[in-house]
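PROTOCOL LOG
Step 1. Enter all chains and additional molecules of the complex.
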Amino acid sequence: GAVVSQHPSWVICKSGTSVKIECRSLDFQATTMFWYRQFPKQSLMLMATSNEGSKATYEQGVEKDKFLINHASLTLSTLTVTSAHPEDSSFYICSASLIGQGAPGNTIYFGEGSWLTVV
Amino acid sequence: AQSVAQPEDQVNVAEGNPLTVKCTYSVSGNPYLFWYVQYPNRGLQFLLKYITGDNLVKGSYGFEAEFNKSQTSFHLKKPSALVSDSALYFCAVRDIESSYKLIFGSGTRLLVRP
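Step 2. Run joint prediction.
Step 3. Record the structure below.
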């Protein structure tokens, strides 16, 4: 299957600082990438959908000014957690798929996830 | 609105026995259904999907799933479980009404005992 690379795998940052997580599709072009957050022993919560070259679409309740998403190219999307606080500590997972008209059957591939710990 | 339900938080089976992880769905229109597996501290790995065609879908690692339209189910199965199959399994449906995002079930933890 297709490979989605996520970096870093683990990051610890101080409260009040910002941290960036990268998501890359290595062997395919992803017009759409999705960012999820997962709490321990829970399902995935979709945070936002990012489309290459346009603004991300955030899910209800997700602060767009806190979780900045950029999708500048067909192979790279970034999530920046700004002014991080301990409650932002979580497992963040990105996913990517080549989305086009009539392609709901396309498989969405996931990165390995990034553990963020804010101290 | 599209949704999936995984009624079991945990499934326990003995190694070598068949396993079933249940999933039911609710969609408007044609369903696009997926199964993913997550190992501890890892991302999700794609197992299989149903788009159209044969109701029995075969996937990775010996897993298969049966699409049942009348029961609106898409149960994941494997004839002979391995201890290494122990993981968290997610059923998902594609939201064709909104950005084609995946809508996940709550997940089912599979524990295969030796």
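Step 4. Note key features.
Residues 22 and 75 of chain B are 5 Å apart (CA to CA).
The longest strand of chain B covers residues 87-94.
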